């Protein structure tokens, strides 16, 4: 099994990790593995969600896009108020 060593971890972070591990009746190593798994799954879900949303956006076809007003004209108009 691979070994992961973390050096120079801030003391407050280590203490917090220790408290959370104790509350969950886990060793610090076990708690670290659980937290890493959760963080990586969260990041993967964010990435997949972004990809899905970008795909949805790119698949939407905008009709009559050539009739949209020029953004610069809209800004000038808004600033003129």
Summarize the model shown.
This protein has 81 residues and is mainly alpha-helical. Helix content is 67%, strand content 0%. The mean pLDDT is 90.
Tell me what you see in this structure:
The chain has helices at 11-23, 28-59, 71-79. The longest helix has 32 residues, at 28-59. It starts with 10 loop residues before the first helix and ends with a helix. Helix 1 (11-23) packs across helix 2. The chain has one domain. The chain is 67% helix and 0% strand. The model has no long low-confidence stretch (mean pLDDT 90). The chain is mainly alpha-helical.
Q: Characterize the quaternary organization of these chains.
A: single chain
Number of domains: 1
Biggest beta sheet summary? none
Share in β-strands? under 5%
The low-confidence parts are none
Q: Got a strand count?
A: 0
Percent of residues in helical segments?
Answer: 55-70%
Average pLDDT: 90
Helix/strand/pairing category: mainly alpha
Q: Looking at the structure, what is the overall shape?
A: elongated
What is the CA-atom radius of gyration, in angstroms? 25 Å
Describe the secondary-structure layout.
Blueprint lengths: L10 H13 L4 H32 L11 H9 L2
Helix pairs in contact: 1-2
Keywords:
elongated, mainly alpha
